[in-house]
Write a structure and sequence with these properties.
The protein has 75 residues and is α+β, with helices and mostly antiparallel strands. Helices cover 35% and strands 21% of the residues. The chain has a domain of 52 residues. Strands 1-2-3 form a three-stranded antiparallel beta sheet. A hairpin with a 5-residue loop joins β2 and β3. The chain starts with 11 loop residues before the first strand and ends in a 12-residue tail after the last helix.
Amino acid sequence: MYYAPKEHNSPHIHVYYSNDTAVINIQDGELMDGKLPLRQLRLVNAWIEIHKEELMADWNLCQNGEKPYSIEPLK
């Protein structure tokens, strides 16, 4: 997650896997941009579901120009 005050897009995260990159909506797990292999997309969506509250709290911090807290990465 990048932090830029008043980001105009829906709450989202940026995902990097091998040579693929993607932007995924936090609220519904929808792929907004880019691509990921289906298996990795499913793993990321499961991770988002587990950490949704933390991700939304971090999104709100980012909207105020504040640094987000670390969230346990996908393993």
